[in-house]
Amino acid sequence: MFTTVEESKRLLELGLSEKSADMHYARMIMNWKGEKIERKFFSPRVGAPGSKQASYIVQNFEDYEIVPCWSFDGLVGIMPHHIVESGSEGQKKHLYGIRMSYMSAEHKWCFSYVTPLNENTLVNVYGDTRQEAAYRMVVWLIGSGNVPEEYLNKQQ
């Protein structure tokens, strides 16, 4: 499973670096009898944009579009193992660890950041698939400022 083209573009808009992607979509735009024909995106291919695998399209087609995408493993790799939330004055800090679970009663996947003994939960994010839940967690992490800087665009 991979992020869709739309989800991938959303992650880029939010500031995720295309270099953090582990896959890419590609489509060629061909000229046929003076008309531009935009092909559908191919299935995701291994390699981030700019990789050896993606450069084949750049070298062999005049017009093309390459969109980075993330596999489930790629999204999980972006998630920090722990988040430290400092309490207000006089309160202790909390250390939250990542947890993934399947909730069989609801038929949902869940990513959570919880304290070691599950006393406190920072966030729960759900999805119908583990890919969807991972995508939603990365969106939350970007919005809350908890994605490690190496995965973000430098301009942001």
Outline the structure in words.
The chain is α+β, with helices and mostly antiparallel strands and 156 residues long. The protein has two domains: 5-71, no CATH class; 74-151, no CATH class. Helices cover 25% and strands 33% of the residues. The chain has four helices and eight strands. The strands form two sheets. Strands 1, 2, 3 and 4 form a four-stranded antiparallel sheet that branches. A hairpin with an 8-residue loop joins strand 5 and strand 6 (94-103). Helix 3 (72-78) packs parallel to helix 4 (130-143). The longest helix has 14 residues, at 130-143.
Number of domains: 2
Q: Please count the helical segments.
A: 4
In terms of per-residue confidence, which ranges show pLDDT below 50 for 5 or more consecutive residues?
none
Mean pLDDT: 83
- Residues in β-strands, percent: 25-35%
Keyphrases for this structure?
4 helices, 8 strands, 4-stranded antiparallel β-sheet, alpha+beta
Summarize this structure briefly:
This protein has helices spanning 5-13, 52-60, 72-78, 130-143; strands spanning 23-32, 35-38, 45-46, 63-69, 82-85, 94-103, 108-114, 121-127. The chain is of the alpha+beta class.
